[in-house]
Specification:
The chain has 341 residues and is α/β, with parallel strands linked by helices. It has two domains: 46-210 and 249-332, Alpha/Beta hydrolase fold, catalytic domain (Rossmann fold, 3-Layer(aba) Sandwich); 214-247, no CATH class. Helices cover 36% and strands 15% of the residues. It has an eight-stranded mixed β-sheet, with helices on both faces. α5 (181-192) links the parallel β5 (174-179) and β6 (199-203). The longest helix is centred in the first third of the chain and has 17 residues, at 4-20.
Length: 341
């Protein structure tokens, strides 16, 4: 079982990261997301990411689930999507959930090229990939100050894509992926609604021991100090309500889950993750095994937390192979021909 200190450090670090977006420096910890210090990095040219198999566009969509009534998505379509020969072709869908202090652009500069390369080599079937951007400091929950974020991700985005793009309707062709807090959300959705997605694959997911009362006083104070500001106190209570916490914490959900049906579940974390998510994900894997819930877990020796650490890109190759293996036979046949092949 992860130590009391581990859980406290992870929660405190998450709070510190969120506060950093307002300009207040975190105390002694870099924010998750590859070592970014405060807020977003300087804007970079999206065209600097060389993609040969995917076209990229950042779009804004309307949604009734969020109070802003709109949100951004990074949409990646197969490069020959508009070719007349493909007019009747439908593609599997992969949704990507970012970590705290990130948005869809972090995936573009961190992971899009990896996806493109896997398609180019024929190791990943042609697919539609969508990088989600959620409101600031979101826990991917309904009832947040920004609105019903979970419904936006799990319902509104798939519905918008089904209306505006040729997305496959076969069960095996819907995959959800994420990193850090986005990984936590993806695992939460998977374990609480295992029929919604066919495959869920995460990296460095935030997951904690089952009992929030394990927080020692110094870290409890950190949570209480910033919980109101981030809107998290209203969601989880003060002190943290064990039942509310169990509804979003992957390890808690795993302890209460008896079956995940046909859901395919993959997750990994690194031994050099500076938030301690390696041991935390190991514990999640043990719980899933004890519960008899099928899954694939990889503890990556030397693996770091997010894009800036340089190891997530290699881990993404493995998770994409897992995602690809779940695609329907029709989608699996839609592969780019490798150069010289």
């Amino acid at each position: 079982m992860a130590s009391k200190w581990t859980m406290a450090a992870l929660l405190a670090a998450g709070m510190a990261s969120a506060v950093a977006q307002d300009g207040a420096p975190p105390q002694g910890q870099p924010p998750p997301g590859g070592g970014r210090r405060f807020g977003r990095p300087p804007e970079r040219d999206p065209a600097s990411v060389d993609l040969t198999q995917l076209s990229y566009q950042r779009v804004e969509i309307e949604t009734q689930s969020l109070k802003a009534r709109k949100a951004s998505l990074g949409v990646y379509l197969p490069i020959d999507y508009t070719a007349p020969a493909n007019a009747q072709r439908h593609y599997p869908l992969v949704l990507w959930l970012h970590g705290l202090s990130e948005d869809d652009r972090d995936f573009h500069f961190g992971g899009a090229r990896v996806v493109d390369e896997q398609i180019a080599t024929g190791k990943l079937a042609q697919c539609i990939v969508v990088a989600v951007a959620t409101p600031r400091a979101s826990l991917y929950l309904n009832g947040e100050p920004a609105g019903d974020v979970r419904d936006y991700v799990t319902k509104d985005i798939p519905n918008w894509l089904a209306t505006n793009h040729r997305v496959s309707t076969e069960r095996g062709d819907l995959a959800l992926m994420g990193v850090s807090l986005g990984g936590m959300a993806a695992l939460c959705f998977a374990l609480s609604e295992p029929d919604r997605f066919a495959t869920v694959a995460t990296h460095s997911a935030a997951t904690f021991p089952d009992d929030p009362a394990q927080l020692p006083e110094p870290h409890r104070s950190t949570v209480e100090r910033y919980g109101d500001r981030m809107g998290w106190t209203a969601l989880l209570g003060r002190p943290i309500d064990a039942e509310k916490f169990a509804a979003i914490n992957p390890t808690s959900l795993a302890l209460r889950t008896r079956s995940i049906g046909a859901l395919r579940l993959y997750f990994d974390a690194g031994t050099a993750d500076h938030y301690g998510f390696g041991p935390a994900n190991e514990e999640l894997a043990k719980v899933l095994t004890a519960q008899g819930l099928p899954h694939t877990f990889r503890l990556i020796e030397g693996g770091k937390h997010s894009w800036g650490g340089g190891t997530l890109q290699a881990a993404l190759v493995e998770s994409l192979a897992f995602v690809d293996a779940g695609f329907s036979k029709r989608s699996a046949a839609q592969r780019a021909k490798p150069a010289g092949g």
